[in-house]
Known about the structure:
Layout: E1 7-9, E2 15-21, H1 34-51, E3 56-57, E4 60-61, E5 68-77, E6 85-96, E7 100-108, E8 115-125, H2 138-146
Antiparallel strand pairs: 1-2, 2-6, 3-4, 5-8, 6-7, 7-8
Amino acid sequence: MTRTNAEALSVPYGYAALAPVHFDDLDPMGMLHNARYAVLLERTIATWWAQHGVSFADGRPTTPDVFSAVREFAITYRAPMRGTGVIAVHFWVERVGGTSVDYRFRMTSPDGGTVYADGRRAAVRIDPATLRPAPWTEHGRELAAAITKI
């Protein structure tokens, strides 16, 4: 796998991967555009869940846990990420509720020396028929527990 494709990194808790930053991710000043941080986080989280069987296959959900909606997203920008290349996206589950999951994340240089941004993302599992909150399956809870910060 090349350094420009999503590449898993070793971290003591949670999950981290390198994510590519392309020219069209940059703002006019040559920095990673503020809105792209959320996109890179979403892609990394979705990749992790898909690697564990929670995704869509042939347009169909593989599990009820694939249906969730972001309830809250907060980010603090610490330093500008300049130019193209890769950024390390590290996330973990802080807490799993009955219908919600609270993530924390940080985005750093590949060596972890520079923190570009950090924050939190809360999501709610929803029933696709009613669009109302629904409980996580036991399997979904077990998966989330595997990336909880200890």
